[in-house]
Amino acid sequence: MKSKVMGLSEAVKEIPNEGACLALGGFAITRNPIAFVHEIIRQQKKDLDVYQTVAGMDTELLVGAGCVKKLNYTSGSLDRFGRLERINADIDQGKLDIREYSGLSLSMRFLAGAMGIPFIPTKALLGTHMLRDLIEKKDDGVRVETSPFDGEKYVYLKAIQPDIAVIHAQYADKTGNVIIEGPKWDVEMAKSAKKLYVTVEKIVSEEYIKQNVEKVAIPSLYTHAIIEVPFGAFPNAVYKVYDYDREYLIDYAKTNKNIDKYDNYLKEYVLGTKDHNEFLEKIGGLARLSNIKADPIFGYKVEVS
Amino acid sequence: MAEKYTTNELMAVTASRLLRDSDNIVVGLGLPQIAAQLAKTTHAPNLNIVYEIGSINPDAIEMGVGIADPRLWYQSQYFTSFVGTMGHVLQKGMIDVGFLGALQVDKHGNLNSTHLKTSKTSTGIRHFNGSGGAADMACFSKRIMAVMKHDKRKFVDKVDFLTSVGYLDGSDSRSREGLPMCEYIKIITNLCVFGFDNEERVLAVETLHPGISVQEVIDNTGIELSIPEAVKRTDEPTEEEISLLRNQIDPLKMFI
To answer: Which of A69, A216, A242, B241 makes the best surface tag, with the fewest CB within 10 Å?
Structure first.
């Protein structure tokens, strides 16, 4: 079968320089496609229309770097480490066009996109100010209608098929069969995209895929590109491969409270590194990374005394 | 009955006792999760715990920093997607209890976890977080519980932003909006337990925590309240519950 393996820089070059609709797969501090996002910032893509169900550092980096025009999401945080203060500050200052949903309603828009249907009904969002604001902003993602089957009121959610979806996963083979270990909150989103880019910790053999077929969450027919990026979610966690970097997240949650510090961070760590390897060297290289490797049974770093 | 316990312990125990064996529940991190674990260890061994990220019935041995922390997924029985939890389970009507937290609650039990109004920004808001699955849980769960710290600025007549539906404008407005009807909404605070079991669906004290005065609740609530002097007291935790919380469920005291 044909290889879909690409380099990171080459993959990001395929994204239009302006106005792409991009969905990201991270969830708070887990499996965020950080390496891919860094490369988007280095290549200075602009006016992105970004979708993410529960945002993390991945979307915040894009917003902080001025790449995002519109953000469609439901919430986001660094879990207990802190909030996404760069996103919050841009919202507070009216600099970012935000479209807020509930987790289920945004996921259902992806589900409809993945199934090729025009819309999907739900009662989620009824009575909320998310719905009020979406209607006020004339967002075409929602319509309040009466179902012809039970005569009841529903929100009809318009299907989304983003131009590009990017997820980070543990493994894939070169043809694009993707193994996700742990929860798979992002599969409907991944399947809804016109082009799915998957960064993985390691490209494995087709033999490995066939021996672990029950772990394949996304078959190759959905995949546009496979990009091998070890520690591609750092400093966020990848279940069974490495833990989140606690100290890094504590520092990041201080940096993102101040715009000047944040701009310096972007200049030094993202724009100031030519690729992900250089970024990983800059943050401390193997000495730091070997310290967060996960126990393969527990899935996170276990202290051995 | 335990002789000494903290307010957080009392809140966890109170929430835990509201859970019934074989309930299916959706929880987030913090006190709700502690309460669920306590219930599962005591009177509700058949509790099914669903996390929106796509994990069902984990048996974590370490506390995490959030539901995206792999510590929370240890020994899970099932991994699925957001649609798999919030769609196939919650929206289908299979969740008995949705357990929430919020920045604000109003007199009809509507919750705000998105933003607060302020005069300090050009848009007049200070954005904090958002719904995540909270709005979905408030919409579809049969029983809704929220744990909140008692504060005048958190208990308000109208929430600054309505993220998660309670009884909307009171009376029958929730069902008139086309929303599924819930059995009850309860707000557990550090001073009392609130419910809305009256015709107008207005916030009312159900039980007052031991040692708390009626005046203390009135002074810390930004909503007009009438509390009868003979209001019931919240049941106190048992020695066993406190010991389980301290020694087994949250020994590092991350949440209690």
So the answer is: A69
